[in-house]
Amino acid sequence: MRKPDSKIVLLGDMNVGKTSLLQRYMERRFPDTVSTVGGAFYLKQWRSYNISIWDTAGREQFHGLGSMYCRGAAAIILTYDVNHPQSLVELEDRFLGLTETASKDCLFAIVGNKVDLTEEGPLEGQEKGECSPDLDGRGCVTTRVPKQVHLEDAVALYKKILKYKMLDEQDMPAAEKMCFETSAKTGYNVDLLFETLFDLVVPMILRQRAERPSHTVDISSHKPPKRTKSGCCA
Ligand SMILES: Nc1nc2c(ncn2[C@@H]2O[C@H](COP(=O)(O)OP(=O)(O)OP(=O)(O)O)[C@@H](O)[C@H]2O)c(=O)[nH]1
Ligand SMILES: [Mg+2]
């Protein structure tokens, strides 16, 4: 198996759509999912680097495993459901504590999924300039609900996390860049989410490589020790 150069972890409450987001990105589809048990990962090649993306279980019974999955992570995707305010609250109350084992310069993205179910979200096929045949006066589907969690709430949480982690806002990517609204169902913003993170993680890989002590020995500059008559080194 190829060795990952970096690690990204998806965290968040059960049912928010972590598995669906990862499958949408990696497999380009929106299959039926079953609630995740433990964790699983995909390996993504991005340029010449291998990035592992870990999907974790949101169910309370697997909570203890979370910090193990986060160990050494370069980026964490904190996922909530835009229709369930409690899922955003849980990110701070239950999941943030699991990220202590992540890399010290770990990046955070906050992702509100299932935006297709809200009135504000883009319509299925809208990115392609299409609309559903099930029409209202504007030519679009109407069975959608007002959004329960707004992007500003995610931005506020992002800023709070930086404070909690004692990270300087100046040194970190801006909240507006790291807070996303997505739909695993339609694919809305899913590529943008993952690929923004990949591009941010690559310089971290390069930095780590530069800092890591080299294990190679330059044998051309190595002089053999002089031998004395007794056979001992001078
Ligand atoms: N409408 C809509 N449904 C979604 C979306 N993403 C996921 N779902 C549905 O939400 C349910 C839960 O999705 P999962 O991806 O299994 O959720 P999860 O966060 O991985 O849940 P756990 O593995 O239990 O932690 C499934 O029925 C999905 O089909 C989305 O963007 N829009
Ligand atoms: Mg899952």
TrEMBL record:
Membrane topology qualifier: Lipid-anchor
Chain intervals for the UniProt region annotation (Disordered): 212-234
Alphabetized UniProt keyword annotations: Cytoplasmic vesicle, Golgi apparatus, GTP-binding, Hydrolase, Lipoprotein, Magnesium, Membrane, Metal-binding, Nucleotide-binding, Prenylation, Protein transport, Transport
Keyword Transport: yes
Sequence ranges of Basic residues compositional bias: 223-234
Classification via SMART domains: RAB, RAS, RHO
Any one Pfam family match given in the protein's UniProt record, by short name: Ras
Single Gene Ontology BP annotation: phagosome-lysosome fusion
Gene3D superfamilies, A to Z: P-loop containing nucleotide triphosphate hydrolases
GO cellular component, one term: phagocytic vesicle membrane
A GO MF label: GTP binding
Cell compartments where the protein resides: Cytoplasmic vesicle, Phagosome membrane; Golgi apparatus
EC number(s) on file: 3.6.5.2
Enzyme class: hydrolase
Annotated catalysed reactions: GTP + H2O = GDP + phosphate + H(+)
InterPro entries: P-loop_NTPase, Rab20, Small_GTP-bd, Small_GTPase
Cofactor: Mg(2+)
Family: Belongs to the small GTPase superfamily. Rab family.
UniProt name for this protein: Ras-related protein Rab-20
Gene behind the chain: RAB20
